[in-house]
Amino acid sequence: MGWTGWICVTPNFTVTNETKDEVKIEVIYMPENCIKKSKRGDLMNAHYDGFLAKDGSQFYCSRTEKDGHPKWFVLGVGQVIKGLDIGMDGMCAGEKRKLIIPPSLGYGQQGNEKVPPNSTLMFEIELYSVSRGPRSMEAFMEMDLDKDRALSKTEVRKSLMAEYEKGGTRRDDSFYDAIIADIFRTSDHNGDGMISTKEYNVYEHDEL
Ligand SMILES: [Ca+2]
Ligand SMILES: [Ca+2]
Q1: What ligand is nearest to the CA atom of residue 152?
Q2: What separation in Å is there between the alpha carbon of 143 and the centre of ligand 1?
Q3: According to the UniProt record, what class of enzyme is this (predicted)?
Q4: Closest ligand, as measured to the CA of 159
Q5: Distance, CA 150 to ligand 1 centroid (Å)?
Q6: 21, 37, 84, 135: least CB-packed within 10 angstroms?
Q7: Mean pLDDT for the stretch of residues 113-134
Q8: Percent of the chain with pLDDT over 70
Q9: 3-state secondary structure the chain
Q10: How far is the CA of 140 from the centre of ligand 2 (A)?
């Protein structure tokens, strides 16, 4: 799922027949392992770039914002604009979507500093992870088996195995290796191979 090569450029697209009050969803990439689909209340980790539909100009790019990390937010609770809450429902980790969002589900008649009034928006989304519920300290403590207030790869693996193998299906190591590599890439900011409580709780409430 490498996103390192993804740069923020204006894509080639045209908007036709935009429907009022409806989010148009186009799946650009669907991963083979689509295990868990997002639903309201899930914690999402995604990159999303926003463009104005009328001329394709970019008004937001999470890859160049702040530290360029994918953004964390809870789905369906208004932490992002309505069109994103709707358009990112039923999505799985690794999936990419293009969304077309009418003004009523975007920034409306007001717009914001970068979005003119009554703008139809186009978003490109790449979802990295979906997990049930916000990252709570309770969940952290549960995963932190040796109680050293840091999560090792072994601890993360055990917790993933408990979750993915609930139904009794055994998955091979490479399945977990890929997920763990992804989790540590996005969460282990100082690269010491452990996820600290601070790194775990990177809760960003973005303006979007
Ligand atoms: Ca630990
Ligand atoms: Ca760390």
Answers
A1: 1
A2: 8
A3: isomerase
A4: 1
A5: 4
A6: 21
A7: 89
A8: 83
A9: CCCCCCCCCCCCCCCCCCCCCCCEEEEEECCCCCCCCCCCCCEEEEEEEEEECCCCCEEEECCCCCCCCCEEEECCCCCCCHHHHHHCCCCCCCCEEEEEECHHHCCCCCCCCCCCCCCCEEEEEEEEEEECCCCCHHHHHHHCCCCCCEECHHHHHHHHHHHHCCCCCCCCHHHHHHHHHHHHHHHCCCCCCCEEHHHHCCCCCCCC
A10: 14
- CA-wise closest residue to 53 among 95, 93, 23: 23
The number of residues making up the chain comes to 208
Q: What is the pTM of this model?
A: 0.57
Instruction: Give residue 151 CA to ligand 1 midpoint distance, Å.
Output: 4
Which pLDDT belongs to residue 133?
Answer: 63
pLDDT band at 135 (very low <50, low <70, confident <90, very high): low
- For 172-182, what is the mean pLDDT? 89
pLDDT, tens digit (0-9, with 9 covering 90-100), for 30-62? 999 887 899 887 888 899 899 999 999 999 888
How many angstroms does the Cα of residue 149 sit away from the middle of ligand 1? 6
Short-list 143, 194, 171, CA closest to 35:
171
Given a contact cutoff of 8 angstroms between Cβ atoms, the answer to whether 187 and 150 are in contact is: no
Domains and CATH numbers, the chain: 24-131 (3.10.50.40), 137-200 (1.10.238.10)
Alpha carbon dihedral 67, 72, 78, 84, in 10-degree steps, equals 80
